Amino acid sequence: MAVAQEADQRPQGSPAAVQLTPFELFGFADAARDKKDYTTAEAAYRALAGNTDADVRAEARFRLAMMLAYQCKRPTEAAQLLRQILDEKPKVARVRLELARIDALLGRVGAAGRELRAAQAAGLPPEVERAVRFYAQALDVRRPVGGSLEVTLAPDSNINRATAAPTLATVLGNFALSNDAKASSGLGATVRGQGFVRVPAANGVDLLARVSGSANVYRASEFDDFILAPQIGPEITLGKGKLNLAVGGAWRWYGAVPYSFSWLGSANWQHPLGRKAQIRVDAGFAAIDNRRDALETGDAWSLGIGLDRAFSARLGGGMQVTALRQTARDPGYATAGGGLNGYVFREIGKTTVTVNAAYNHLEGDARLVLFTDRRIDNTYIAGVSATLRQIRVGSIAPVLRFRFERNASTVQIYDYRRFVGEAGITTAF
After folding, report:
1. Burial class (CB in 10 A: 0-12, 13-18, 19+), 236
2. CA distance 145 to 185
3. CB-CB contact of 82 with 108 (8 Å)
4. Does the pLDDT value for residue 423 go beyond 90?
5. Domain stop point among 115, 138, 161
6. Cα–Cα distance measured from residue 217 to residue 187, given in angstroms and rounded to the nearest whole number
7. Residues near 287 by Cβ (< 8 Å), separated by ≥ 6?
8. Beta bridge partners of 156
9. Which of 4, 163, 310, 425 has the least CB density, counted as fewest CB within 10 Å?
10. What is the CATH number of the domain that holds 158?
11. Beta strands, E only, 274-415
12. Are residues 166 and 130 in the same domain?
């Protein structure tokens, strides 16, 4: 009787309120999607994504992500939804596999490989192995245009990597150092970015053009540091691995004045090792024209061999061994060295924390005329960073970093300590 009275009091022509169970709402959303009514389907899926039941939320986000990625051509939003599922359910292999595929479509090949290794480290049932092979092949798909941008504020205890000593010991005696030659602290703004264009050239070969750059800007403009580096070259599929070759140039300005120009050449090879790891080999060459000091003009060669591995769905890491050789017109500026660096990342809820450490050793070919000892450096670096996805806005996420450097050198002017903090935002496009 009460129901009849409420019906009588409802304004004529107004629709009756309808309540659907999650199962029925899923059916309604799927039907709208199949009819290509993506606006209605998205609204229904997003309503289900707010359900208090974690399984319902995950299923709704997954179906919405698949629709956005492959029918609405909105892969960035799809990747964000899949990441939200993994924040709550890190061991869902199917979700990681789809995220790997979408990362590959977005051109984030390194992230795609990391997700694939994490899925396999978490353990895959036999029926999923076929899907793994399929999604591994998806890493061959390349996004034609893309890039990334990061903007941070960076308090730095030693922006010029200089000694804290007030005087400098030389063969001629002790010299008082000017303020710009001593360690200077400051608050700066740092911008890093890259963009790329990829064009298919032949079967298994793409032509990749990219430009990267960075800017460190401080109140004291004499410490401003700008770098711009365009490169172009082929990206070649070699079995399960990839080989990238590139040539280009790099301009550097320090204190708003030209510092150097370099001709660059590089090669990068990546190849999977089993299901959970990959090997990386990086080689580089640079012909450096130092515009400040012609005695430092010379060539530089580098070689690095690294291994990345997933230990579980939320834990991974890697190590790299490097070697470096640089020539110079003055043998005192010519150096040779090598190093070892490693990292470990851990997903904690909606935060990805990365801890890294490095050791580098460098020796000069000869003693610089002004100093009593040949240069020998031992550099120690430790850092930690966190990407905070829980306060993400669209594809933009906050990032925090802290790093400590200690360079112990036999030449006083190269001996320094440095502590750097960064707080800002990062995004891919």
Report:
1. middle
2. 39
3. no
4. yes
5. 138
6. 9
7. 262, 263, 299
8. 186, 420
9. 4
10. 2.40.160.40
11. 277-290, 298-310, 315-326, 335-348, 351-364, 376-388, 397-409
12. no
Tell me the β-bridge partners of 415. Answer: none
**Structural domain count, the chain:** 2
Encode pLDDT of 14-68 as tens digits.
Answer: 444 557 788 889 889 999 999 999 999 999 999 999 888 888 999 999 999 999 9
Backbone angles phi, psi at 398, to 5 degrees: -70, 150
Please tell me whether residues 83 and 161 are part of one structural domain. Answer: no
Q: Do 78 and 115 fall into the same domain?
A: yes
Q: Are residues 267 and 408 in the same domain?
A: yes
Helices then strands, counting H and E runs in the chain, come out as: 8, 16
Structure confidence by residue, pLDDT tens digits, 112-129: 777 777 776 666 555 555
| Same-domain pairing of 90 and 154 | no
Q: How far is CA 398 from CA 21, 42, 83, 102, 192, in A?
A: 37, 27, 15, 22, 14
Q: Is residue 37 part of a domain?
A: yes
For 154-174, give the secondary structure using H, E and C: EEECCCCCCCCCCEEEECCEE
Contacts of 118 (CB under 8 A, 6+ apart): 96, 310, 312, 313, 314, 316
Asked, for residue 403, whether it belongs to a domain, the answer is yes
Is residue 98 classed exposed, middle or buried when 0-12, 13-18 and 19+ CB atoms within 10 A define those classes?
buried
Same domain, 108 and 153: no
318-370: pLDDT as tens digits? 999 999 999 999 999 999 999 999 999 988 887 889 999 999 999 999 998 88
Do 240 and 167 lie in a common domain?
yes
Task: Provide the pLDDT confidence category of residue 143 given band limits of 50, 70 and 90.
Answer: low
In a domain, 13, yes or no: no
In angstroms, what CA-CA distances link 26 with 33, 142, 186?
10, 33, 55
Task: Quote the DSSP letter at residue 89.
Answer: -
3-state helix, strand, coil in the chain (%, to 5): 30, 50, 25
Is 2 domain-assigned?
A: no
Residue pointed to by tokens 């990362």: 103
CA distance 86 to 98: 11
pLDDT digits (tens, 9 = 90+) for 5-17: 333 444 444 444 5
Q: What is the pTM of this model?
A: 0.71
Instruction: Provide the CATH number for the domain around residue 71.
Output: 1.25.40.10
Cα→Cα distances 73→64, 69, 76, 121, 383, Å = 12, 5, 9, 30, 38
Q: Domain range for residue 319?
A: 145-428
**133 shares its domain with 281:** no
